[in-house]
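Question: what's this shape?

___
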Amino acid sequence: MPPKQRLLITGASGFLGWNLCRAATAASWSVIGCVHRHRIELPGGALSARFDLTDWDGMKELIDFARPTAVIHAAALADPNTCAKEPDAARKINLEASINLAGICADYTIPLLFVSTDLVFDGRGGAPYAESATANPVCLYGEHKLLAEMGMRERWPAVTICRMPLMYGEPGPAAKSFVQPLLAALREEREVRLFTDEFRTPVSGRDAAAGLLLALGKNGELRMTSDEFETRNSKFGISSAPGLLLHLGGQERLSRYEMGQILARAAGVPERLLVKCRQADVVMPATRPPDVSLDSRRATLLGYAPATFADEVRALLSA
């Protein structure tokens, strides 16, 4: 990649967006980080642009003015419970704005990478999920993300789609991961209830950002056949064109409780503060799939090499 090509990143003030800005500037991209409510200084000298995802005209004006070499769409209303409680807002941000952005990128033939989620799967069998697995979301957030994948692919067939797992790591000035409040509770000797029957393949923000940039650079090697990417789900009844799809999960399948154990040991706090519970014990607005661990061997063949949860937690604590 020639130095100082322009990369536009939406959701730059979010946890993943912040890590993306830092990784991309370190990789010699000239970064334009799009923020909405949070006016923050972005890392690595990235430029900050105010950006409302629901404003189509404003979105088009920004793309027309910036003329980025590539776009990574990381912005989202990402909390499943909030999406369940605010379905109209979630649809506008997670679905409609994503499809509109794909249409604008198609108009300018700008490479676009869409950050999707492991929650497009129901978690009731078939894990770890490969890219060819049948998607069947059980929460509104996952449903909107899957529909966004399909709608964006229809508007811009060249879009790269990366499904991300649960992420953690060093916080930015406006967003943190689940590790920070969990660690704070343990250090204050407060009990924490953690699921023993919910499994993910967590990855650090640092490794997630590296994987996304890898996918952006390697997208020509990721083309799949239409049969591989076909969504065999009558609930949505939409078929996608051949395109780019990649899973960027961590290398371990861990329950929420196991993550808590690893964190407690690394921080030197008593594990007795961790209280085992099951998903059925906690009533929440959004349904939680039990096991959406991802099969990321395809990405590994391209050079994706995420660290273990324990190693990343130790590095985070030492920093």
Summary: The chain has two domains: 6-167+203-247, 177-201+252-293+308-318.
